[in-house]
Amino acid sequence: MRLSSALLAIPLLTAVNALHFYFESNERRCFMEELPSDTIVEGHYKAYIWDESNNKWQMDPEVGIHVAVEELSTGEVVVNTRGPPDGRFTFTSHEPGDHNICLHSNVTGGWIQSQHLKLYLDINVGSARPDIEADSTHVTTLSSKIRELNNKVADIQREQRYMREVEANFRDASELTNSRAVWWSLLQIGVLIGAAIWQMRYLKVYFEDKKLR
Fold this sequence. Notes:
Elements: H1 2-8, E1 15-24, E2 28-35, E3 40-51, E4 56-58, E5 65-71, E6 77-83, E7 86-92, E8 97-105, E9 116-125, H2 132-136, H3 141-212
Antiparallel strand pairs: 1-9, 2-8, 3-4, 3-7, 3-9, 5-6, 5-8
Protein name: GOLD domain-containing protein
Transmembrane segments: 181-203
Membrane topology: Single-pass type I membrane protein
């Protein structure tokens, strides 16, 4: 019973972002995705073009989609490819942090330059790596599910480690800021005390001179 419940929970461990948007054929749309390191991301897109004559959206094989993925922390481009109107792309994050996913059509001029496009995009974060050895040995479906579950758990652990690193960096920055604020406050107090002592001594000398006169 516990094993069945665990197997049913497998689809819940993968983060899936599905959306659709409209844009012109000469536009470029970008999306930010924060990823831990060594995480596989799979994307599936479908592009439709507006047909004025039939007054409907339809897929045109002449319209391709260019996909570019950049790691913002290093500036490395991990994906730079052009595919058909119905295509997929896959990449593995090398460094933790934000990744910029940009898409645009390959139409830059000609009679379809100002065409309207509608694009469906599904992004699957934390996909299981293909197990070639398991396929070659023809393992059972149950073994494959358990292996996939282990891969999902490993992805979650990597993401948790990444979040702990982010929290640790934020805590260190907060402690450094608080320490600087404390020292600045102590310095201000020291200056005020020094100024008060100097004023008291000055007034004392001033009044003593007045008495002597």
